[in-house]
Structure formats: C-alpha cells, structure tokens
Amino acid sequence: MAKTLRNHSYVGIAFGNIDVTAGSDGEWVGNVLPWSNNTTIDFTHIYNNTVVTLELNRWSLNGSQVILPTSVNDGLVGDAMSDGDGDIDFTIERDFTFSHALPGITVTFDELTNEFPLSVTATFVDESENEYTVTVLPNEVTEEFEQVCETTRHVELNITKMLPYRRPRIRTTLWGIGYSYTNADLVSVTQSVDVDPLARRLPQEKFSFTILDYDHKFDPDNPSGVYATINRGAPITVAYGYELDNGKIEWLAPDTYSLDNKPTFASSKVTFNGTGLLATMTNNYYKGMLGSTNFYDLAVDILEDADLTPSASGDDPWDVDESLKNMYTVAPMPIQSHAACLQMIAHACNCRLYTDDQNVIHITPFGITPVGVFSGTLTDNGHVWISSWDSVDYGGDNDSTYATLELNRWVLGSYQEIAPVTDVSPKGYVSSYMSDSSGENLGASWEKTFDILHDIPRVVITFDDVLGEYPNTIVVTYYDRNGDVIGTKTEHPDSETYMVESEYEDCARFTVAVTDTRIPYRRARVSRVAYFETDYSLTLASVKQDTIVTSKLDKLRNVTVAEYSYTPSNSNLTKLYEATTDETNLHIEYQLASNITISVSGGSVVSSEVYSQAADIVLTSGTKTIVVQGITLNEGSVVHTYQYGSSGEDDIEENHLITNKTMADAHADHVATYLQLRNTYDASYRGSPELEAGDIISLQTLYDNVVYGIVLIDQLNFNGAISGNLKVKGLA
Amino acid sequence: MIIDTLITNRTQADVDYVNTLTAKWLAGTITNDEKAEWLAGLKGAYNYTDLNRVGEAVEYVADILNQSGRSISPTAKQNWTVADIPTVAQMSAFLTDLTLLKSSVSGVTVQIPSNMNNLDYQTANRIEQLILAVYNAINRERADSEICGIAICGAEGVL
To answer: What does the buried/exposed string (b/e) look like for A688-702 if buried means 16 or more CB atoms within 10 Å of the residue's CB?
Structure first.
C-alpha cells in the first residue's frame, strides 16, 4: 500500500555562471603532446580512459588505461614533465576574438587518475591590457580561479608545481564559476514543462529558482558582485532527491536548463529563470531553399546552423528520428527562429519536439493512441474462435469472459457469458493450446511486430483479469530489424497484470511464449498489452483532495489540411534588392524567389551564398551598388477536408512545409486521432520529478481504477516540499 | 639474478595503495619515507622499471633457451625511461617476446594478454609468472637431461 506521507525531499541546483560563447572563441595554445586534444576541454566532455605513459606511478594497474595509438580522448596533455621535486614551468594561453565578461575560470585536471597540479596561476588580460592574476594551490581535481574580468581578451594558465615526473593534463576549462544550492539556500523552485503532442506550438520548458543572497553577490549595484559576468545561456542543472527509509538520499537524474536572462534581485533574494535549449535558439534561420528535400536533412541543417554547444559526451545535442528521411517537402523554410523552424518540421512530420533532461533536442514520432508510439500488429501461433487481438490495445470488454470448459474455470457466479456463434465481442486473446494436467507444456506464443524500431523499457501484460488468473512462466524474446535475437527474459508473473522490463534498444518485435500455467488445463489469455516509458501511476492517494478537474472536448467533425505549392509569379526577373554600400560583408533578405542573380557596380562579388529568401555576400572594398534579381514565387494551397463526424468542432491545420497529399493525409489522421481523445484531467498532486511531459502514465479516477493518459503539462514546485500540477490527456 | 626480482604477487591492495599515497602527496600529508617509497616506483602501478625488468628477464631466459638449442631473439625495448610513452607497436613486440618464450617449452599454461590496454594487476602478475614458468620448465628440462642423459633416454626406447 502506498504511504500517505512522503519522506523528506531535497533539491540540488548547480548554476554555472559561465560564458558559453567563450568555449567556441579561439583555442588553447601551448606546447602539447601530439595526441593532446585542446578542443574538447572547452565544454563538458565525458572522458572514459586515459593513455598509458610511464610517468612515475601513473600507469595504475586498475585496468583503465590504453596504449597509443588509440582513439581515446585524453584531453590536453602538456609536452613537459615535472622534475623529481615536482617543479615545472608549463603555460597554455588563449586569445579571444571578442571580449568576454568572466567571473573566473573553472579547470578540471586529470580526473581519471584524480591527480592535479599543486600550484597554478591564472592570468586574465582585459581590453585595456590590465592584468589580473590569481594563484591557486589546488586540493582537488576541479579548481575555481575566481577573478572577475569584464572584458577578457587573453587568458593564461601557468603550472609551476606538480607531483614528481608528471605531465600537465587538463580535461575541462569552463569559462566561469559554478555555484551550487541546496534546500537551505533555496526560497522556491518552479519547474514547468508543457509539450503539445501535435507540435502546433513550441514546447514551454521553464525553470525558476530563488535563493537568499545576503552578501548581495548577484546585486547589480554591488561593484564587487558578479552580476556583470552572468551570461544568458549559462547552464543550470537541477536534481531532486528523496530521503529513503534508511535515511540516505536517493537523487534522480538531473535536468539541465539554460539561463534565460540576467537574474532579478530584490530584498536580498535573487531569482534565476531558465529555459530548455530550444528556447535559446532565437536567432533566425534564413537558408531555406526551394526544392525537394527530406525533413531529416532539413532539421539537421537548421540544428547545425544554430551552432549549439555539444552535449557532455561530445555528441551533437540533438536526436532527429531517422523516419524523417522518408518525408519530403519542396517548400523553402520561412525565415524565422531556429526553434520555430524545428517546431514546423515536428508539426508537419507528426512528431513531438522537446528537450530531454540532458538538454538534448528530440524530434520523435509521437503516436497518439492507447499504445503511444508502439503501434504495430499482434499475432499468435494459434487461437480459438472467440479470441481477438482487436481490443487488446484498448483493454477491451474486461467486465466479462466467455465461458469455456477448461477445468474449474467456469466459476459459478463469475461474469461469464456463452459465446455467440458469430459476432463475438473482442475480449482478448485466447490460445488454442492448453496446458496439460500438470499445468505445463502449453506451447502458446504470441508476438508484437512494431511499425518502427523501439526501445521497450516496459511492457505491461494483463492476462485473465476477469478470473484473476495468470501464467506461471513466460519467455519474452526481443528481436532486431534483421530478425536476430537481442535478448530474452524468462519471467514468472505474480498477478494478472504484470510488467516486463527490459533495457533492449531498437527492437523490431518481441515474442511471448507461455510455457506453463501452473493451473492444469488452461489456455493462454491476454486482455491488454500496454507500453510505458515510466511505471508511474497517479493514484487518488497522491492527488490533493478535490483537485481533479475533468474536461471534455467537443466531438470532432472535420480536419482540414492545406497542401502548399510554389509557382513562379511570372517568367521575368524582378528586382529583389538594390542598395549602395561601403560594407564588405552583406546579409540581405528579400521576397521568396528563384533564379537569383547578383550584380555589382563599382566593385565585385568575392563570394556569395544565395538562398531562396536571403543571401550572404562578400564584396570588394569601396562604395558599390548591388542589385539582386530573381523570379518571384507565389505560394498557393489546396485545402483537403477530412470528415470524422457529422457534428462537432472543425480543426484547421496550416503548415507551409506540407507540400504533398501523402503528408496531408497522414497529418489529418494524426491530428484526428488526438482530437478524438476528448477527456483531459487536471490535478494537483504530490509532485513527481521523474515524470516528463509526453510520458504515458496510468491514473486512477473516481470511476476507473486504471485510465491511461499522456502527460501534457507537468509543473513542479518546491518550497521546502515538492508539489505539482498535472494535465493529462486520457487515452480512452 | 633478474629472475629473483620478478613480481607475481601484486594485489588490489597494492593498486589502492598507489591511489592512497598519491592522494597523500597531493594533500601534502605524505611523509618523507612515503615519498621515498613513491619515488622508488610502487608495485600497484606499472612503471618503466617494470618494463625494463620484464625485458631483461625475457632476455635472460631466452639466453638459457638458446643454450638449450632454441633460437630466440627478443626484440622488445629494454631502456624505458619515465619520459617514454609506450605505443601499440612497442607493446606488441613486448608481448611477442613472451609468446616466443612460451612456445619454446611445453607445459606452460599461463595466459599471455592479447594487448596491454586496460592492464590490471592480475595480468601484470601473469606476465611475470609466465617468464618464471618458462624459466622453471627449461631448468627442469636441463636437470632431466643431466640425470638420465639424452642418449641413454633415447636409446632406452629401442633397447
């Protein structure tokens, strides 16, 4: 039984007062070894191994070091070695192309061996050639060199003391100082995620926290404070923890946000606001081109153009589903923010757009059905005539079962019906195979084949829920796209609803062999198969009393989807742009056109990148006149209407990237599936940080013990204890 | 004798001791005796002295084998210094020498690692156990031949 009182909860926040643009401005220069990697140290990178060297006692026999040549990234490794007394004089330096307001620098040294220098001096030089130095005698592998320099143009790190016979190693340099806060520091924390399953608008991923700042460190009026060095986009991570019954704190994986703007200071309290990575992508993408392209390439081009910082593992901070390679558009992407471009793509491709807890952007297919994205077909190796898989995704008619003569199953007084000869109601799968007198040798099996590859963290199988019976042994086998076995799990269910968990990825199908029932003479039965990314269940006990609000949409009548096309307005060249300028680097924007030509008088074009609505041009110096011409294009559309009912609301879908009937049809179907889910539940609850918008969860209502739903909005609040608000779309 | 210096009894405690002593040095709490111990090279780490010792022992055993009619020419580097950085090619030569030793006698079952990546203390022990096993095998072989005499033993079968 769930506890009505929850143990103490905790929040930990790490705020990096970091200039995220400094990492990509210039690079470290110094005398380093050939395999040294000076670039990955500019962002948080996960290092797994280190390269073997014969520096005294460094090749630890713990199985973690590899021999050159290797692809292992060892970070920056200096080509200098301390002497027998540990003395060394090693310097790396860096010039910035533009000024950076830095509160200092945080350096992580050789974290894999937990070694660090014993004396390091950091020098910051500002625009006026003023030098600011700070010397630190490190006592841990990550050290902060706190020194405010508001217009930093040059930085040096000089290492003068180490262990004997050691080369300098640096894994990470973060351009700023990290601060961490826990319960005692925090006045309040609010986290809110709102993801539209249809991607009709950008997701709202917001985070805010307020701390006490009696020292006025973040007070903009404090000349010795750090306010001036706080940069938009600085990383914030938040982790929630629960106190376990044994007194230990279990921390959940942290969520990552980017600082939205400078903090606000009032009455010795300072409030920081963060957003997901998407909300920081406010620069415009203007490189749209007319012509057929697949949505995957288009999305990746936009993401690359956004110049995002790599993830902690050094990978691109995005994951675009491969299925987008098979969807096409001929439309040029309108000039708008990178985030808005991605939202248009997600909307057109029936995907969900969101950032995960590591601030990685995802464009992922979203199946708005009772099976979520796990659509596909269910088949078996033999079933009786009353069997049906049709209802299993939905739960079917679980109030009764068809009477059969399996020994002692037709329990008197139970909800059993005599099956009609025709038109049987779908009550789930019933195998033709039956266990023997020992309850063994059943031999029934069934399988689910997915439409696309899936990770399958949790499959919940409901067996004979009317009689409360369940098999003794099932063997679940997972297959990849080639039909090869990825893994097998032998499970012994302990209730009529049983969850099979797995860590297998990219599964094409799974089979379930029911080998024995323990009870003699029993057929295998399945009344429901559900798929979850979380095992979360929102029970009435976890909901604040009288806060559940159920609302119901009107019925859906029509969905209209516009299919766009682009045709030349005429065959003549039109002047799109004309100007006289002294500039050498010119970015211009104009109306949508094709066959674009650039002519210059008084100078010439050095190079140019020409797009359907913009151009980047490099010109020779001097005053010149530039003229851009092209054939302007008209945008037209055909509106397709899809009828889903005789009365109710009409829905209108307009997305300029939908340029073929196939995508219009699919989009209408996708939208209609969602809009026909009419029940929405709002509730205030005890707050669960492990939940994410888009998760499919089960919830208990006043009338049903189990209703499945998609989390649309998840809001968490912390003011000493965690609470939250949920909006869930029912999947009935 | 170099054979007597081979190390075959490293333990996890030795590996942990490297971390402990290094941490003490970094924290400034290390004693002078511990410093001297650290500077002499610790058993739980693989140092240039280990590579040189193994190289020297391989050559020593190879000489004995060659005196017994084999023809083995170790090629691995033996003048490692603290500034060196071993490469895959050099470590392959190092392991090839061990393979040559092992294949020159029968009855030695000690496993040779396929490479020196992710070296742990058990593998480091096995490397030197192998040299010792080959050394013992060739010594047994030589002792047997001295006791019974090869000609007599060979003749016994046809008498």
So the answer is: bbebbbbbbbbbbbe
